[in-house]
Amino acid sequence: MRSVWVLAAGLLLLAVAGPWLAPHDPTQINIPNRLSPPNAQWLLGTDALGRDTLSRLLHGARWSLGLAFVISVIGLIIGTLAGLLAAQGGRLADWILMRTTDTFLAFPDLIAAVVIAGVLGASITSLVFALTVTGWMRYARVARGIGLSLQSRGYVVQARLAGLSPVAIARWHYLPALLPSLAVVWTGMFARAILGISALGFLGFGVQPPMPEWGSMLLDARIHMRSTPLQMIWPGLAVVCCVLAINLTGDALRDALAEQERGA
Description:
Blueprint: H1 2-21, H2 53-88, H3 90-105, H4 109-120, H5 124-133, H6 137-150, H7 154-161, H8 166-202, H9 214-221, H10 230-263
């Protein structure tokens, strides 16, 4: 359990302090040293323009992890509000919101995100919008399910009879019950957002050059995959390790919450 939280803290440190740990300028072109293998000066080698791969990985962590954090938080807020409104707004609001949720869930996340980003154009704003639009539905499902289960609880009925507004009931009774489950869902969606950012970056819809991002680094290294495969392996490993660490953190959080409920 402790090792999982150490992994999570390491990811946070990587996202925040990565640029300060970089040994070189990630955008500095050095053609004479292009595609250099790992050595004492370039610990992970250089790319096709002679830029230090390690520095680009560390700087790219801020984009990949930072954008994934923003996307998952925005999706959490939108999905939670939609789920609570569906649970408290009556049958009509529930039907409209849940049919909208089902419609979004009917489309594969990545394909829908690629279509949206392609229509809006390649930019960070388009990337965030596309992945947010395709990532809020699972929060809404969880929030609605728990919200409906709480409606018949005695303390919620008493609060309603006492004249508390739906906003106050949601604030004091629904959200405390929602947060543990939503936290577990959020870790999974955080990992999915990293994969989505990397996939869109690989397709050219993400962070634009010369700024480094793990998906765009995979795109740049694709041409030289046969001659210097390490240039694709490093950013690929970064994505895999981060997603694995976040999923392990989510599993540990779920187990801790389940143990706490059993103890209660």
